[in-house]
Specification:
Blueprint: H1 3-17, E1 21-28, H2 31-43, E2 49-62, E3 65-79, H3 83-93, E4 102-105, H4 111-121
Antiparallel strand pairs: 1-3, 1-4, 2-3
Length: 125
Amino acid sequence: MSPFLGLLRRTLSTMSQQGSYSVAFVTINKMEEAKKLAAGLVKEKHAACVNIIPGLISVYEWEGKINEDPELLLKIKTATSKVDDVIKYVRENHPYDVAEVISVKIDNGNPPYLKWIDEVVGTKA
């Protein structure tokens, strides 16, 4: 295969993957709650992997007061087509009245890792 055709093939492959995968972020206050939420997301096939990152300090306004609280961050890797499922699951199982659930699309990544995400969570029909 010519170098040009190889480059074109890799470029088209990368372009077809752009936006197909997402990372969602959720904050939570207790490790046991974080583990429970993470395990449920993976068990229900809403996420391929959830990292629990301790040591955050969140500063926010709630009910007219400025608050500063320790939290943990869940970094949730999934298919973009599953983000709504992640949001629904978190809203139904999170201890906060208003759970933070935000997501960003993955523009590029290690193709075998992205393939693994798809193998674990699949995509919606």
